[in-house]
Q: What sequence folds into this?
């Protein structure tokens, strides 16, 4: 915690182990300090979790391979989605969760999302991991199935004993 809040320590935050105390001179100043917090490359506020604007430039200027049109299109979409606030929303356990999974020959990814009141999908959390040496030898269908099972296990605290939609682009799993 000391490292995370080092730039704010003794300005309006005291840190002791895993405890944080926020102090201020006036009640209004105190409410201002609590409105939003920069944390691990994100801004946390009452509206959700958004990207820290100082980090967005690195994502937008990331070099894109020019020989694969589909990959370039994907990266462009990814740039747009990762730099449009709010990125992450708080989960609403009364609404249906949507689990998106996808794979490559190098790794798995899973995205847990929900639809908001306007019927727009909002991401709750992202997850990914590399394939191990045995998994690299799986067939495409086995890897896609692995991603679905891994995503369900990973997001179990959110989806356990609740209906949810699983979305995959692999036709054999539909």
A:
């Amino acid at each position: 915690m000391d490292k995370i809040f080092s730039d704010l320590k003794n300005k309006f935050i005291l840190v002791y182990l895993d405890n944080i105390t926020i102090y201020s001179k006036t009640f209004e100043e105190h409410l201002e300090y609590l409105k939003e917090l920069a944390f691990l490359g994100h801004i946390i506020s009452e509206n959700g979790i958004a990207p820290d604007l100082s980090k967005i430039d690195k994502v937008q200027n990331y070099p894109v391979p020019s020989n694969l049109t589909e990959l370039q299109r994907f990266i462009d979409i990814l740039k747009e989605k990762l730099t449009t606030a709010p990125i992450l929303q708080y989960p609403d356990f009364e609404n249906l969760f949507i689990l998106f999974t996808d794979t490559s020959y190098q790794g798995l990814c899973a995205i847990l999302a929900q639809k908001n009141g306007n019927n727009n999908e909002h991401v709750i959390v992202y997850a990914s991991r590399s394939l191990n040496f045995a998994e690299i030898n799986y067939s495409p269908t086995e890897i896609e199935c692995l991603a679905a099972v891994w995503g369900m296990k990973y997001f179990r605290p959110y989806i356990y004993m609740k209906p949810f939609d699983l979305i995959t682009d692999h036709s054999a799993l539909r």
About this structure: The chain has a mean pLDDT of 81. The longest strand covers residues 121-130.
